[in-house]
Structure formats: C-alpha cells, structure tokens
Amino acid sequence: MTDRLDAASAAAGSPATGVPAGPTAAAAGGSRELHAFIAGLPKAELHVHHVGSASPRIVSELAARHPDSKVPTDPEALADYFTFTDFAHFIDVYLSVVDLIRTPEDVRLLTYEVARDLARQQVRYAELTITPFSSTRRGIDERAFMDAIEDARKAAEAEFGTLLRWCFDIPGEAGLEAAEETTRLATDDRIRPEGLVSFGLGGPEIGVPRPQFKPYFDRAIAAGLRSVPHAGETTGPQTVWDALTHLRAERIGHGTSSAQDEKLLAHLAEHRIALEVCPTSNIATRAVRTLDEHPLKEFVKAGVLVTINSDDPPMFGTDLDTEYAVAARLLDLDERGLARLAADAVDASFLDGAGKSRIKDEIDTYTAGWPAP
Ligand SMILES: Nc1ncnc2c1ncn2[C@@H]1O[C@H](CCC(=O)c2cccc(C(=O)O)c2)[C@@H](O)[C@H]1O
Ligand SMILES: [Zn+2]
C-alpha cells in the first residue's frame, strides 16, 4: 500500500494545466507517487462547464480581442479576478467571460482547447456542460454555434482520443424564456448536435425553484436526453428532492446539502443516483467553508455513488487531477481507491456499454501495472 496522501508530503504545486494553484491545491497534499498515479490514471469527467473551462491563456487572448471587456488580459491579474467573495460574484465573473465568446471561431477555439486540457489529464470521456442560450442571445448564430462545437468534438476525438459529449443546461435565473430556448435547441432535430446526451439546469439556485422547469425537462427526456440538474449547491436538500421528483434527475450536480438529510442520502444510495462532487468549486464559491467541512466523506459513508469533477477548473485554480488528489486526501484513498473513483465516474456516465468497458479495462490495466510499494 503506497503512502497515503498527507499534507506533510504536499507536492501539490500548480495544476497540470498551469493555472495558478487555487484554494485547495496545497490542501490536496499527497505523495509524489500518488500524484504520479493520478496523472496517468484514465478518467471520465461528468461535471465541467464549457466557458468555465476557458484557460487563462484563452481568456486573456479573447480579452485582448475585445478591449471593451473588464476581464484582465494578463494571466496573473486573471488569478485575482477569479477570486470570488460569494456565489453571486462568481456568476458575475462567469458572465463577463461568457461575453468574450462572440464568434463561432471563439467557440471552436475554446472547445478544442478545453479538450486538449482534458486529454492532458488522461480524460478519455467528458460530458461538457454548455449553455447555448447565453451564446445565442449574445448574437452567435445557432447553426454556426452547433457546427463549431461539433467540429471541435470530432477534432478532439481524432487528435486526442478524448470522447466529448454535450450537456445543454438552462441558466435558471434567466427564467422560462431561457428554458424554452434551451429546450428548443436541445430537442429540435434540425438543430440539436449529434454529441448531445443530457440536459441540465445551472446558475443561482436561490430564488430559482426547480419545479417550474418540469415541462422543459419532460420534453428533453422525451427526446432521449438524460436529466442532470444542479441542485443543493447553494440551497438546502429540498432543492435536491425537487430535482429528483420534478426533473427526474439521474445524477445531481453537486448535491452538497444532501448531507443534511439522512432520508435523502438513503434515497440517493438506494437508487444509485450519483452526486457530481466538485470539492474546490464548493470552496471557491463559498458554498462550503473549508475542505475539512466538505460532506464528501458523509456521502461515501452513506453509500452514495460519488464522482469527482472540476466544474470550472481555471476559474477555481484547479483541474481534474487536483480534484482527485483532494478526494484522495478527504477519503484517505490509495491507488486502488482512486481507480475505483475513476471507474465509478465511467459507470455513472451516459457513454454506451462498449465504451464504458473499454475505459474501465484501461483503468484496470493501468492500476495492475502500477508498481507495488
Ligand atoms: N458551479 C456552478 N453552479 C451553477 N452554475 C454554474 C456553475 N459553474 C458554471 N455554471 C454556469 O453558470 C452559468 C450561469 C448563467 C446565469 O446564471 C445567467 C443568469 C442570467 C442571465 C444569463 C445569460 O446568459 O444571459 C445567465 C450557467 O451557464 C451555468 O452552466
Ligand atoms: Zn457546475
């Protein structure tokens, strides 16, 4: 059994993608061997946002193209800009980056570079959450938008071997107009992209009750899409219950407050409804005060299926490898425990059976070949 992760042997440093280390990188700690194991471990990422994954290089390049933007062009200044006082502040900053994505070429460049960053971390499969409403309402033609993400998806598969699929989400605070538009783009066969597999709900939860979106999720599910709304990130367990009962959620984005409701934890465990846990995101948006208070351990103790994700990695000064190191420390995992986390994410994904078996076999081969301590 290799040394367990511990702060004393912290070898964290900046995440693999070169963004300045965020609020939990140091806490990730970890032996060099375990970091090396994580770096080579084949993974699947199920909760990561398109615009939220724009690297400092991409953001500064786009900001330089649009001098009217308040987004800094200098990567160092960007690290300060990506420091949030609360969730509402995070959304403001997030939207200022959305404003930078103005042309189909911006969309294609962003998507391809996000795929490159995922491939660099041995991500074999990712479900990337895209908010098409936010881009089409800012003037990007919907057909050109879909062509741009599909071009990038096919290029990523051909050049990096990384499979991308899309989740289209409703920015809930933008209301039912956004819900209608997102549902149309996700269900009209004349426009919906080939890579689309799921349908979500993002943005602030406070003042945005989930039940109002039931008609839209019903239409998306009827069109064959899988339901994966955010819930319980900045509000209590009732939002998670609502996502389950009204939106028929198959997985829950974050679900952090589920730990406050034993019955909810039991329900999630019994029905194998995975939580898409994003530890550093919860700290960076102040949804959770400190890592040691993060409920990840409670979820595992209650038998809930958890997947580890980065949410908006450059904005939170993290990446998926760092999130695995954080999870290893919080759950006291060794290589086998980490491999099981990765396999659980593959199982909870919407990839077809053959694809799941292929990635899980790769995880097993990699782990079996890892030198024993
Ligand atoms: N951790 C997160 N938790 C929740 N969401 C997250 C998280 N990370 C990223 N997002 C994304 O933030 C956006 C929010 C966009 C939004 O609220 C909004 C409000 C009003 C108008 C408009 C507009 O476009 O006109 C947009 C969503 O696209 C969502 O996918
Ligand atoms: Zn999210």
From TrEMBL:
Looking at the keywords, is Metal-binding present?
yes
Checking Pfam families in the record gives: A_deaminase (PF00962)
- Could you tell me which residue ranges the Adenosine deaminase domain spans? 42-365
Region entry Disordered: which residue ranges? 1-27
Comp. bias intervals (Low complexity): 7-27
Cofactor(s) it depends on? Zn(2+)
What family is it from?
Belongs to the metallo-dependent hydrolases superfamily. Adenosine and AMP deaminases family.
| Protein's UniProt name | Aminodeoxyfutalosine deaminase
